[in-house]
Structure formats: C-alpha cells, structure tokens
Input
Amino acid sequence: MQIANPMYDVVFRYLMRDNEIAKLILSTITGETISSLIFKPKEYSHQQEGIPTVLRMDFAANIVTAKGETLVLIELQKDRASFELVRFRRYIGEQYYERANQLIETTAKGAIIIKGIPLLPIYILGDKITK
Output
C-alpha cells in the first residue's frame, strides 16, 4: 500500500491551497497568530525524472502583534536536498527587489523611504544540512 507523502506530493500543495488549513500550518510553523492569509499565484514546482523535487509557494499574511497587525510575505519552499539553499536565498533577494513587495513611505521632512515588506522564508528540507 502506498501512502501519499505530503513532503513531495500533490497532497501538500492541495492542503496549502485551502486557506484555513494553510493558516493553521503556517501559524504552527512560525509560532505566530495569522489573522488573514492570501495565496499569491506565484507557485513554482520543479520535477526531476518525473519526480517532484522543489515546491515554492508565496503567501501574504497579516500577523497579529502587540502593536496590531503586520503585513508579512511568507515564502514556503520544500525540497529534497539541502544544496538548494543558495538558490532559495537568491530567490528571496529577487522578492525584495520586486516593486510589488515594497512600501513607499514619506517622512515628516518629506524624504521618501522605500522599505521591503518583511519576508519570512520557510525551508522544508528532506535532507540533513551538512557542513
């Protein structure tokens, strides 16, 4: 008998597209209370020899803090191998560079400040990280 493995399977993708389940999973992983979650249609999947190896999903979340709610981008990446960390980091840099992920603020003195929306990367690896 085969059991669907949510680590590499379509099962995990299916679960994460259900907003309430995704909120529960991401809240549990981050230890934060997520009041609202929006799946951003920027999903990426890579297969090697017909076997899914990489899954990347983006979310915009409002996290409850002592000061109120804060908008945070959540980047969830799953892979079998730890050597993909360099590619993951490059992808995060690209996310900060995108205009859609930047906030433009004006100070009291009229200066314009561009800030990136905080990005919370989550890596789920099916392999141990080695030195």
